[in-house]
Specification:
The complex is a heterodimer of chains A (251) and B (80).
Chain A (H helix, E strand, L loop, with lengths): L4 H20 L13 H22 L8 H21 L4 H19 L14 H22 L17 H47 L4 H32 L4
Chain B lengths: L17 H33 L4 H24 L2
Helix pairs in contact in B: 1-2
Classes of the chains: A mainly alpha (251), B mainly alpha (80).
């Protein structure tokens, strides 16, 4: 089985404990000697990289002489804050941390595939699905936190004043499955958009590299960088839009 | 009949950034197919679970409706 060098190292070190752990969960593996997949290894690498980066920034935090790294992160934070303030409104600060981390994580995951010897974890559908589930759970949790049990009213369609009760109940019964499907569709569209873009970008770079290995792939790598940034941004923006829908006061 | 007073438009305190618009409108294209596929997937999962064969069709129709509603809702909100 083909593996990246980093996955090989991880599997060499942790194959036995991971396999035995998965066996206790009754998960049987195709390759018991290599339970860690490339995408998971890359995700771990991005996680470790971000953790180290944040610790570094935290240790060097200074008001008088902020370094370049601090400036960079402040710029990202300010950008995310601006976006969420524009969409959610003035009470958007508590949510900014989640948006910022999902933006940075997906961005690094998208870009790491450009370095030879690495691979974009977001090019495998399970990773974007995980991110989408995080965003999905997050906006529902925030909706519940904001409105309490009244949040469930969101699933029964818009409030119709002056409508007879029977019609309102009928409309709610019709709207409930439609709303459930549309929330599931959000999950699907977040996953598929990110995965398909990164997968296609990697594939195009690879195809052109195998045809004309000099010069031309650079153009597509550049294109891939644009797509990577744009998709991370769109994922963050949609999370913000979903949170704003969940915490909005409609009545 | 034209009204005598010009319609009052709420003045936005800040201009909507083009980035937000781009993100929102790129989402529009995904809405309809995503709703349709999601409805069908949910329906066929229920079919497999309950050993029936009609829920996937209902799910497909609901998914199309959900996609349309989501699309119309977004467009209405953005053109307010």
């Amino acid at each position: 089985m083909e593996q990246l060098w980093f996955t090989k190292i991880l599997n060499h070190l942790f194959a036995a404990p991971v396999t035995s752990f998965l066996r206790t969960l009754r998960i049987e593996l195709k390759h018991p000697m290599a339970p860690i997949s490339d995408s998971f290894a890359m995700e771990l690498l991005v996680f470790a990289f971000l953790l180290a980066l944040f610790l570094l920034v935290r240790s060097r935090l200074s008001v008088e002489s902020p370094g370049g790294l601090q400036h960079g992160f402040e710029a990202i934070e300010g950008f995310v804050l601006d976006q969420s303030r524009e969409i959610i409104g003035h009470h958007s600060e508590p949510y900014t941390a989640f948006f910022a981390i999902i933006f940075i994580f997906i961005l690094i995951c998208n870009l790491i595939g450009l370095i030879p010897g690495f691979e974009s974890p977001t090019g495998v559908p399970i990773v974007p699905l995980g991110c989408a589930i995080c965003a999905f759970l997050y906006y529902h949790t925030q909706g519940f936190k904001h409105a309490g049990p009244k949040y469930l009213l969101h699933f029964f369609g818009p409030p119709m004043e002056g409508m007879p009760l029977v019609a309102r109940i009928l409309l709610a019964a019709l709207m409930l499955p439609i709303e459930l499907v549309s929330h599931f569709a959000r999950l699907l569209s977040l996953t598929v958009r990110l995965w398909a873009n990164i997968f296609a970008g990697d594939l195009i770079t690879l195809v052109f590299f195998s045809m004309i290995p000099i010069g031309v792939p650079i153009i597509f790598s550049g294109l891939h960088i644009v797509v990577a940034i744009l998709q991370a941004y769109v994922f963050m923006l949609l999370s913000i839009i979903y949170v704003s829908g969940a915490v909005a006061d409609e009545h | 009949m034209p009204s005598s007073t010009p319609p009052e438009k709420p003045v936005p305190d800040q201009k909507k950034s083009p980035w937000v618009q781009v993100g929102r409108y790129s989402q529009l294209a995904m809405m309809l197919p995503a709703g349709t596929v999601a409805g069908w997937l949910l329906g066929s999962a229920l079919d497999r679970w309950l050993h029936t064969s009609w829920i996937s069709v209902v799910g497909l129709l609901l998914g199309i409706a959900a996609g349309m509603i989501e699309l119309i809702r977004t467009v209405l909100r953005d053109t307010e």
